[in-house]
Write a structure and sequence with these properties.
Helix 1 crosses helix 2, helix 2 packs across helix 3 and helix 3 crosses helix 5. By secondary structure, this protein is α+β, with helices and mostly antiparallel strands. It is built from 27 helices and 32 strands. The chain has five domains: 144 residues, tricorn interacting facor f3 domain (Immunoglobulin-like, Sandwich), CATH 2.60.40.1730; 133 residues, Neutral Protease Domain 2 (Neutral Protease, domain 2), CATH 1.10.390.10; 87 residues, Aminopeptidase N, middle-beta domain (Immunoglobulin-like), CATH 2.60.40; 153 residues, Peptidase M1, alanyl aminopeptidase, C-terminal domain (Zincin-like fold), CATH 1.25.50.10; 132 residues, Zincin-like fold. It binds (3S)-3-amino-4-(1H-indol-3-yl)butanoic acid and zinc ion. One of its GO terms (molecular function) is alanyl aminopeptidase activity.
Length: 874
Amino acid sequence: ATVIRLEDYRPADWLIDTVDLTVSLHPTATMVRATLALRPNPAGAVDAPLALDGDELTLVSAALDGAPLGLDAYTATSQGFTLPHPPRRAFTLTFETLLNPTANTKLMGLYRSSGVYCTQCEAEGFRRITYFLDRPDVMSVYTTRIEADAREAPVLLGNGNPVESGPLDGGRHYAVWHDPHPKPAYLFALVGGRLARVGRRFTTRSGREVELGVYVEPGKEDRAGYAMDALVRSMRWDETAFGCEYDLDVFNIVAVSDFNMGAMENKGLNIFNDKYVLASPQTATDADYANIEAIIAHEYFHNWTGNRITCRDWFQLCLKEGLTVFRDHEFSSDERSRPVKRIADVRNLRAHQFAEDSGPLAHPVRPNAYREINNFYTATVYEKGSELISMLKILIGSEAFRAGMDLYLRRCDGTAATVEEFLACFAEASGRDLSHFALWYRQAGTPSLMAKGAYDEAARTYTLELAQATPPTPGQETKEPVVIPVRLGLIAADGEELQLRLADGRELADGLFVLDAPAAKLTFVDVPTQPTPSLLRGFSAPVKLRIDLDEDDLLRLFRHDSDPFNRWQAAQSVATRLLLRAVDAVKSQGEPGFSPRFAEALGALLAATDDHAFAAQVMALPSEADIAREIGQDIDPDAILEARRALRASVGRLIGPRLRQVYDGLASGEAYSPDAASAGRRALRNAALDLFAAGDPEAGAELAAAQFEAADNMTDRFAALAVLAQIPGERREQALARFAALYETDPLVLDKWFALQAAIPEPGTLERVRALMSHPAFSLANPNRTRALIGSFAMANLSQFNRADGKGYDLLAEVALKLDDANPQLAARLLGAFRSWRSLEPGRRAKAESALRRVEAKTPLSADVADIVSRCLA
Ligand code: HT7
Ligand code: ZN
């Protein structure tokens, strides 16, 4: 596949002002008639031919200004349509194309999901519906007429507002939708199907009445309420927090069961993976509820950051995605606990983005080249993109940030913008030069921030030396220093927060120091006693902090830091030190031993805290993958598993009675509610059960089995099953069988059952996964099911995916090869599990490489998979 480069960007030679579509739905023969009103782009080249994109299209007819085009006037293939000599004026082109939605297993363009017609056009799906200038800077006003069998598809939805609808001959009917807002083709959508509607009215702050609809599979209406509630809260929040008001008369959300990603922000018609819409206490966990809230908000927020202001080209993807992730994080922080949300987001960032950034798939937040854009919907673009916005806000302050957002939303409204245009608004609003900050968008890799402190008792000074370095990443051997906002504090031995007075008289406003050079030295004066530095508070920059604090320092931070994020971080750092030592012990055939102080500190927290959600985050020790990233090279996943098991068992034994007390004390007789406080109580209770069972598997299993039976909600039932799944034996198998029997007709719950088993860290799991692939409910055609079983095995089971015999890699390669033709996007995503293969010990590395080479050898190989595999192997 050809490489597309940012530096080659040119405006389109043609513009398309309007698109009139008639889509006559049929399971295997859908006819699409598209009339495009074209005109030369004043900013484009003169005398340019007209080359439209297509993908797997069957052309039935083509006409220019309504007159059929002779065969010699154009060239058309399934992949494109060219008019070598187009008129040098405005004209229309009308195409008829024939589609087979049932055969569309790639789930891009128009396809059928459980009998429901739906579309997915981002990034390049519209070209699978009709020939088009399928690029985000070509924006058109769409009118869509949808026709269908009235029994098969009584509900017909499009972008924008409904215009008219009515019956047709032969049991068919139609609906016309008009979207007055010019938009790129990737935001086009339609839906047709037998769907049930849950409705609500929303009045915007300026008085616009909006009809909200959430469409789900009939019979599941009672699971749509939370999504609707989250939508209403998102709409209100966006008005208050960013001044963004909704701009159409209707807003619809449709849940479908086959979807390549989480959801899609099509204008006025969001289409969702049903996993992120459907929830009831009996089928969804607290984590599911939180995800639904975040993703509903995310897609809704795109209405301004993505739709009203879109991207000039796909290199600017972070412009909408990073910013919208930032906005959804802010929303969840306001709706729930800000510190707990920050901890969860940083865990996620480290697990996915840091891992990506340190391997062969590393790329800048704004990449400068791609072969397959689908592979750039990454943690780097989304999560690191969001971190850059957080840093921008810290650097210029909340007020200037809001002024910059207001300016951006006003100035760029209705345009396809760039990162430069975005940053210019903040530079203007703050009066600051952001050119150095902009490097974060171009430079890949996670910077390390090295810190070293020294206390001079006689002079009562404390000197903090800071330095930064970013490791090389593919295509970027040398790195420049970036702008790192470091929020910091100094903590005295008694836990008091010390004043931050610098020797040169400078003040650190809000404890913020901005490191924009390779290194800096800060000398604090009037420091009465040896302090402990609390650095990178709130995780003020997406960097790896390297500071040599001893256990005393870390435990002091854990107990006293006024910054809750750093309290959590201190506990994680103590655990990490213990785990790294334990891994060494395991590798040299020794017994890992642990100082009891960490467990005691956890016990003390449990005795004192009433912030249950925070305490639950503290109790969740670093994951195997976290430990692997700390080790960085020659990784032995079995040693990590053993070390982590040993620490959990030791902590569980040492504070078992306290854990049991917490578990009993948090039992609730109240009816389930998904609110943050109730979820926090359940999270802590289940974390206590989990650690208790690690210390005493027999007693823990008994408690878990009782909880499994008694639970009136999925959070508690599934948490109990997860505990049982860690303890081999008949009881586990019985619980798994019982769970399957209880939920056999509920696909989203069954996904949890598949995922849980695939993540069991035992050698038998490979065979279990292979057996589950033959389970009647398993299908590679359903992305959720495939991600649940194969994705969970490859991404959430470090020791078993990375088996020393390479059989885990063989399994993933086999699945990817099977999926490559049918759904290359999904195949490529799953193969992302190989992103850290070079940091394994040599034996596993060789096995991983040979699995990747086997995939590489398939011919033909999809562009999606070829791109991932070749970058992994480069
Ligand atoms: N903007 C949406 C991206 C998306 C997507 C991309 C490629 C292939 C399928 C897709 N489905 C959705 C989702 C979002 O970030 O809001
Ligand atoms: Zn998004």
